[in-house]
Amino acid sequence: MQHPPLFPFPIPSPENSKRNCVIAFTTPQNYAGRLSELIQLKGWTPLWCPTLIVESTQQTISSIHHYLNFTSNEPYSLLEDFSALAFTSRTGITAFSEALSINSAPPLTPNGEILTIAGLGKDAELLDQYFIGKMCENPERIRILVPPIATPSGLVDALGLGQGRKVLCPVPLVIGLDEPPVVPKFLEDLAKRDWIPVRLDAYETRWAGAKCAVEVVTRSEEECGFDAIVFTSTGEVEGLLKSLKEFGLDWEMVRRRCPRMVVAAHGPVTAAGAESLGVGIDVVSSNFGSFDGIVDALSHKWKSLENQES
Q1: SUPFAM superfamilies annotated for this entry (predicted)?
Q2: Which of 11, 184, 213, 305 sits 20 to 30 Å CA-CA off 81?
Q3: pLDDT tens digit string along 108-165?
């Protein structure tokens, strides 16, 4: 279901300073509020153009429950067979938590091996005491791991050698788009470190449809009506390109219409994915554990440009 823009602000006049510039961003709804607030704190205007719909479904919740419910033959869940649970997104944690909340009992018994639960950056804030309590009555069985580098490869490094142990990986089921290489590479890297990765399609990522590009197309027709566009995943980039194609446009045409537009990527993984799709990136956040990094990177970019012009 396509959601209407959350922030229909007017286009700033050309004489306005960069403090009032318009920042288009393609983030799904579950991240939109956080990024929009940070954009507004900079004195800028957020323009939400979601290219993806990311949500759990009855099917994906059922897939999670497969690992949480006690088996018919044994008094324990399949999750007991795993040494680690590795989340690469906030949505994965949310979907898992949703399944836990409607589960009849914690999937882990009070006694047993420690389960390492890993999350990236600010996403790991959701791995709180409530989450741990729903996982097991004995919190000593749970170890929370937050890699110092908030990327899937950083997560692999933090987990270390698997020594033949199993790791459950709740990841998205991509529908209507080509799956970006991030998740397959993550699973491959785990296997190279002697883990046995088990993929769990914990939620769906779907193309939001052609309408998601309406604002971008409309505001770029004459004089570009936005100053920057922010991508927070490779899937968002592909979603926008697919939508532009529905209007008979490609990325180079948008670039020509908006020569002053700054294209920003939330972290090197997103930047690399965008570049592989032919979308050049001007700004990459170095602090990508949260969205603060990308808005700070944009601010630094414009300050540098202003100093060059003065």
Answers
A1: HemD-like
A2: 184
A3: 999 999 999 999 999 999 999 999 999 999 999 999 999 999 999 999 999 999 999 9
DSSP state letters, 104-120: SS-SB-SSS--EEEE--
Instruction: Give the closest residue to 265 by CA, choosing from 182, 157, 174, 199.
Output: 182
Structure tokens at 5: 């823009």
Whole-angstrom CA distances from 282 to 69, 80, 308 are: 47, 45, 16
Q: What is the pTM of this model?
A: 0.83
Q: Can you give the residue range of the structural domain that contains 297?
A: 22-51+209-304
Nearest Cα to 151, choosing from 67, 209, 87? Answer: 87
As for how many domains the chain has, the answer is 2
203 and 246 in a common domain: no
Same domain for 153 and 80? Answer: yes
Sheet holding 142-145, edge to edge: 52-55, 196-207, 166-175, 84-86, 115-118, 142-145
The answer to whether the CB of 26 falls within 8 A of the CB of 236 is yes
The answer to whether the Cα torsion of 126, 108, 74, 112 is positive or negative is: positive
Convert the pLDDT of each residue in 61-119 to its tens digit. 999 999 998 866 667 899 999 999 999 999 999 999 999 999 888 999 999 999 999 99
Q: Give domain status of residue 10, yes or no.
A: no
Asked if residue 274 and residue 173 are part of one domain, the reply reads no
Domain for residue 248, yes or no? yes
Task: With H, G, I as helix, E, B as strand and everything else as coil, classify residue 306.
Answer: helix
Distance CA 49, CA 36 (A): 11
